[in-house]
Amino acid sequence: MTTTNDNAGTDRKIVTFSLAQQTFGIDMRALIEIREWDEPTPLPNVPGFIKGVTNLRGNVVPVVGLAERLGWEPSAIHARSCILVVHIAGKQAGFLVDEVNDIVAIGEAEIQPAPEVETIEPSVIAGLVRIATRQKDGTRDEKGTMVLLLDLDALSLTKHLDIAA
Amino acid sequence: MSDEFDDIQAIFFEECAEGLTTAEQGLSAMQAGDVSAEVIAGVFRAVHSIKGGAGAFGHADLTAFAHKFENVLDEVRGGKIPPSPGVVKVMLSAFDILTDHVESAKGLAPRPVDQAALAALEQVLANKGADDGGPVAAPAAAAEVPAGEADAFGFVPMAVSLDDFDAPAELPAADAAWIVTFKPSRAALANAGEPLLIIRELESLGGEVVAVDTSTVPPLRDLDPEDAYLTWTLRVPGEVAESDISDCFDFVAPDSIVEVRRDEAAAAPLAEAAPAADEFGFVPVSAGIEDFAAEMQRVVETIAAASPAIGSVETPAIAPKAGSEAQQTIRVDLGKLDLLLNLVGELVIRNSILADRLSPADRQRVELPELARLTRQIQDNVMSLRAQPIKQAFSRVPRMLRDLSVETGKQILLETVGETTEVDKGVIEKIGDPLTHMIRNAADHGLESAEERIAAGKDPAGTIKLSAEQRGARIFVRVQDDGRGINREKVRAKAVERGIISGDAQLSNEEIDQLICAPGFSTADTISNISGRGVGMDVVRSNVEALGGRVEIHSVPGEGTTFTMILPLTLAILDGMIVRLAGQRFVLPLAHVLETVQPEPGQVKRTSPDSEVIDMRGEYVPVKRATEIFGLNDDRAIEDSLVVIVENEGSGKVGLVVDTIDDRREVVIKSLDQNLHPIRGLGGATILGDGSIALILDIEALVASTNRFTPKGLAA
Fold it and tell me: Which residues constitute the signal peptide according to the record (chain A) (predicted)?
């Protein structure tokens, strides 16, 4: 299940997933669970990226269209669509992603800061890291893939709404 | 070790907070005239355990103050000092200082100035001393001496006073010294029960270590560093109260050996040897004071060792707490209660799924009704665990008013009503700040000075009435003063000056009153340290709104002002109607529903392109489409819909258009702000029998939004 990078210093694990043809990663420690997509109950008077709320073992948890939230085209729902349920700033939230790829250990030193590019919220991307990826036949792709590490705190729903308000 | 210590200390401070609450409630009851033994003992216990803990954690100032306070309480408890209003007043101010000492021990405040309070306590003790003629220093101990030993104690001071020695320092008091034997158990060490702390505390009482028994220490190779081998023997002056000594061992693991015994052997032989008093008189002459003392002590110890049973007291470190407190409580992490509540919610849902899937005959066969009844009971009980009497939030008000009374020089009486109203713990925690601001505001701005009040023909003492009541799914918390009322002209002028409203704005009285809650508003001519920075009422409003509630202000010039916080009873079970709006299920709180009608053609008429009314037997009721408020697509004809007539306090009747009504059921409210934030128009969400989520409509907010442009809108 787990692939390790060749470099030493496996400081933390990230979950990688695809979204709008990009590979993103979030810190494994923030992850509560991965669930299949289930149509959430829509909420009135909320920004469009909040898809609604869902029942997570008795908790009412908001579901966020992560693609819209990050400014990409909304994800089309398909068989592998799933929801990453995470802890953000003491609250729980579910992120709709296109497909969960892998759990990868990376070294803290391998993370490069996100270049200053023109985005609405540059702080949403905490850094970039290159990981080796598995091919369908099980061999390693040595060229690797660039993973955009998300800063979950910057994605906090209430934080965003405070700014918007 | 230090982390563990910090954790234990954190528990101590939690206990302090509880103790202080108990003490204050008791003292307030005493002030109100209830001086029953139970109340006094309650206060004593509270102060006593604060002192015990403080000693164990080395908070010397706190310990010293609590000790003095406890002495007075002990005397009051023992009936030696009558709990007169004067004494209760001294104790109330001592309580305030004690609270400050606790804050100081936490490192949150500087050490309070306690000399005045100490002197007052001292005074109370001294006055009592005059009653029985006994020396002030020894009353606590003397009070505990059994009657049978009176002879011996009567004798000793005579013997000493007959002597011409300058300072019989070793045996100064009437009471025989205490011999304390302490052997901590292995468990005590494992639980971070540092013996040194206890010994230091005993030393602070004047005790000294006379022997350490090291005989059980094994050879080094057999020594278990985590085991306890040592036994200490300490000598504590006789005038120290026994309870003070046992206090030092409050936190010692129960299997440790602790013995406190009165060293009456010191006195007994003297009494028996009375005819031979001359002999004793000679000893010091020949051997000198030191030798005499040493000899005495040797005799004392020998006899004490020979008769260990005499007067020995097994210090009951745990037992008295368990036995004497009528109400036993345990501390539970709030998170665990929340989890339990969620699980019970799930259980209820599973139950209803089961009921849906079984035929009536099968339901009876598996005794489902019985299961449902039990489940319901469990749910009610779990709910009640989180509900706390609002007393907890009210309990800090008396102290605040005492301080405010001193700061403002106004006489303030407090009346409380409905203290037992039960509110969810989370709400209690969050209304503390708004309540503080409201009380301060009432004391500072609302009430007049005594002179002004007399001039206005009122009682010189102002009254602040604090009340709480539950109405339906809401809690009303009121702070009512009988002061001057809101000076609307002044408020208006100030608001114009601050640029909050324009000079030519037409405002109703209610709207002007509401300006008090506008950000940056303050009418105080000078900024006092009580209120007047223009943040208070603004904070009240935003805090209360964050809880999904609102603030109402009602003021009559010359008669006073009432601030009402209207708060939701979160986590309560809501009796609701499951309705559909544009196909989606919502819960409509039944408490607001008057009736439901299927509109006849022509019964609903437009009064403008944006507004409709329904003809209800001649009464025209405004109609609101919730689908529009929520931006849902709905092209259903009004005749195919239902109109639910709801009524809301202050806003009157409104008809809400819904598609259909599915069901009526009790639902568990889950707040949206736990993981998101409050959404206007929604009072929360609930989980239905099939596990899906239905949103709960907040009628007040929905109705208020229909009135947005009417004068009431601002007040709502």
Answer: none
Give the amino acid at B648.
N
> What string of DSSP letters covers B595-616?
EEE-PPTTSEEEEETTEEEEEE
Specify which residues B587 forms β-bridges with: B578, B696
Amino acid at B347: L
CB B476 within 8 Å of CB B564: yes
Confidence at B305, pLDDT banded by 50, 70, 90: low
Concatenated DSSP letters for B220-244?
Answer: GGG--TTS---EEEEEE-TTS-HHH
Inform me whether the pLDDT recorded for B668 exceeds 80. Answer: no
Name the nearest CA neighbour of B458 among B439, B482, B441, B479: B482
Q: Residue length, chain A?
A: 165
Mutual angle of helices B2-31 and B37-56, in 10-degree steps: 160
Give me the residue from A40, A57, A60 closest to B675, CB to CB.
Answer: A60
Q: How far from the centroid of its chain's Cα atoms is residue B646's Cα?
A: 38
B337 CB near a chain A CB, below 8 Å?
no
Q: Does B628 touch chain A (CB under 8 A)?
A: no
Return d(Cα A69, Cα A84) in angstroms, integer: 14
Q: What is the pLDDT of residue A95?
A: 92
pLDDT in tens, A116-144: 665 555 577 878 888 876 665 666 666 77
B474-481 and B462-471 strand pairing: antiparallel
pLDDT tens digits, one per residue of B449-496: 888 899 988 888 899 999 998 876 678 899 999 988 888 888 888 888
Section B651-677 average pLDDT? 80
DSSP B614-683: EEETTEEEEEEEHHHHTT------GGGSEEEEEEETTTEEEEEEESEEEEEEEEE-B-STTTS---TTEE
Contacts of residue B710, Cβ cutoff 8 Å, sequence gap at least 6: none
Query: What is the DSSP-derived secondary structure letter of residue B372?
Result: H
Query: What are the tokens at B476?
Result: 């009303």
Closest chain A C-alpha to B523 CA, distance in angstroms: 29
- Nearest CB among B584, B680, B684 relative to A45 is that of B680
B119/A135 Cα distance (integer angstroms):
83
Q: For the structural domain made of A2-164, what CATH number should be given? A: 2.40.50.180
The ipTM value here is 0.78
3 state SS of B585 = strand
